[in-house]
Amino acid sequence: MNTAQHDLVVLGGGPGGYVAAIRAAQLGMNVACIDENERYGGTCLRVGCIPSKALLESSHLYHDAKTSFSNHGLKIGDVELDLPTMMSRKEKVVDTLTGGINMLLKKNKVTTYNGRGRFISSDTIEIEGKSPARVKAAKTIIAVGSRPMSFPSIEEDGVRIGNSTMALSFPEVPERLVVIGGGYIGLELGSVWNRLGSKVVVLEALDRILTGIDSELASIAKRTFTRQGLEFKMSTFVESAKVQGDLCVIKTKAGETIEADRVLLATGRVPSTDKIGLDAAGVATDKRGFLEVDANYQTSVPGVYALGDCIGGAMLAHKAMEEGVVCVERMTGMGSHFNYDVIPAIVYTHPEIAAVGKTEEQLKEAGIEYKKGMAPYGANGRAHTLGETEGRVKVLADAKTDRVLGVHIIGARAGDLIAEAGAAMEFGASAEDIARCCHAHPTLSESLHEAALGVDGRALHTF
Ligand code: FAD
């Protein structure tokens, strides 16, 4: 087998890998990108961010059509669900976007290899698949991502009991769906099926949902989701789950038995760093399988870099993409930098939950004195026109310097609103800076303005 020579080989074509490959090609490198799937874009585009948001959008429209169109004076008669069409729309969105990534790689003259890559030494990767190949480069990037966590006692058959990939493609609406794990993936997919008619029960081992999200917002979210029909069983540790006949039987540590038609296991993700020949490359992982890197994203082996989900931290597509850019720019000597304190996180339920920076708990724990400004959606004109008056914006600013330390939003379109907060924080803005910016009226962004004014007790539209 001939060995193809490149300047840089990227193993994994997800958001981290394909972005790194494109940026490296822009910088003049001869780049190869390997992925085991024909459709590039990784977990995010194929079975993550994009298909889940497509279903969230469709199921939200279905729910709105049934429940709130009439409030707007719109009579549309009986609303019927056509699940196969909803699913094929989702697939079309995925096809369009993954096709776009393949075209972008081509346009940037990145050589793509389709197959499973495995290091045979620190600078050479062998690719198994339809067209076996061997590639060699002075620099390699490991961007193999992550996969759902699994447990021997949860007997996944991939049909009735399985992970998020399964729950993105149920062939019919399950009557009863049990979601194990109250994180964002479980809540997003639980919301989809709840809106489409399933009775959804969320089993969470902790006493709160959405760890990592500001606890005040997480409590509001739980109350709201409960009103929407989701049932939560907190502090509930699942001991086992198995398929028995047509049923799934879930047993909890407290001795409760729960029956369901389907079970979604959503308890987190693990790095896909096994079976990629790390031994041959001489690269070690930590106990959980994550790769450790320095400020240049270089592993313990010179020339071998890693980024994205497989190095841990926030397992988010935009974090992986940012690392892809910064990693290759630093390879070429540019002084690029990624500010890990300002990574937005969004839960795409309804209402959306969005956060950037520190939570109140984190500030208290770090002993940082802060001021707080709060603005309810109910005081926002646009929220009323949208019929979306539930929600709030919270701005946390340093008590002495007024610098914005965190912004937390629950409410309609929170995911779009958080961008302004992130940009402001990146520029080191104070709450006063946001308060002095003229915000268009009527927009939801006025709530961020109002919360920033509220930091100094100057809110104008809040009782
Ligand atoms: P991945 O996207 O996992 O890409 C790695 C790629 O490498 C994969 O295609 C994999 O098949 C391939 N690969 C692995 N090993 C090999 C090998 N040996 N040879 C060849 N190819 C290999 N994040 C967000 O930011 N926003 C969201 O809304 C969001 N929603 C999500 C919803 C769900 C249901 C899930 C599961 C995830 C979601 N995520 C979301 C997380 C997001 O998908 C990941 O953080 C992101 O995809 C990580 O990018 P990555 O490039 O590190 O890895």
From TrEMBL:
GO molecular function: dihydrolipoyl dehydrogenase (NADH) activity; flavin adenine dinucleotide binding
Keyword Cytoplasm: yes
A Pfam family hit: Pyr_redox_2
Residues the entry annotates as binding NAD(+): 181-188, 204, 268
Domain Pyridine nucleotide-disulphide oxidoreductase dimerisation: 343-452
Example of a GO cellular component annotation carried by this entry: cytoplasm
Enzyme class, first EC level, given as a word: oxidoreductase
Protein location: Cytoplasm
Cofactor(s) the record lists: FAD
Alphabetized InterPro entries for the sequence: Class-I_Pyr_Nuc-Dis_Oxidored (IPR050151), FAD/NAD-bd_sf (IPR036188), FAD/NAD-binding_dom (IPR023753), FAD/NAD-linked_Rdtase_dimer_sf (IPR016156), Lipoamide_DH (IPR006258), Pyr_nuc-diS_OxRdtase (IPR001100), Pyr_nucl-diS_OxRdtase_dimer (IPR004099), Pyr_OxRdtase_I_AS (IPR012999)
Primary location: cytoplasm
EC number(s) on file: 1.8.1.4
Domain FAD/NAD(P)-binding per the UniProt entry, residue ranges: 7-324
Active site residues per record: 441
Cysteines paired by S-S bonds: 44-49
UniProt signal peptide: none
Keyword Nucleotidyltransferase: no
Family membership: Belongs to the class-I pyridine nucleotide-disulfide oxidoreductase family.
Protein name (Swiss-Prot/TrEMBL): Dihydrolipoyl dehydrogenase
